What we know:
Low-confidence stretches: 172-182
Distance between the termini: 81 Å
Shape: globular
Radius of gyration: 22 Å
Number of helices: 8
Amino acid sequence: MDINQLECAAEAILFASGEPVSISRIAQTLEIDDDTANLIIQHVSDKLCERKSALCIIKLDDKYQMCAKSEYMPYIRKTLDLRRNSPLSQAALEVLAVISYNQPVTKAFVEQVRGVDCSGVFATLCEKGLIEEKGRLELPGRPLIYGTTDNFLRCFNLSSIDNLPPLPDNNTEHNEDDEIED
């Protein structure tokens, strides 16, 4: 296969899948190595940008997905009669933050951090596909552990969980001069 055929095949794979596809799967299908597959995908992405296509390729960890650019979402919603998702509540954002920065975590851990029951919020986040069960802990009761999904990365425009912004430093340093004297 020549380079143009490889690019067309990679573009077709991403278009047809509708879901993120791992680079290793693309490489295996095209019978090339992962590094070459990454270069092929990057070249396809560059071509889409050059011709000002409504489509783009996003990277999610070691996976790629073809999707429409956000500026075309109003047309897609109108055509497909999609309802705009309701925004996440403050509680949902807090739970999502605890999970994303500490994953995998149990519901009990999140509830301990927040100090309130989070059952409803967990159900909502699972329903929206932002978190999912990642397994069970080897402890009495074998509690479920949760982590974020590819949909979480896509919604928050992150290519990887490593791209989360750093947490603020809670260590407040102060000089001896700042201390109150008796």
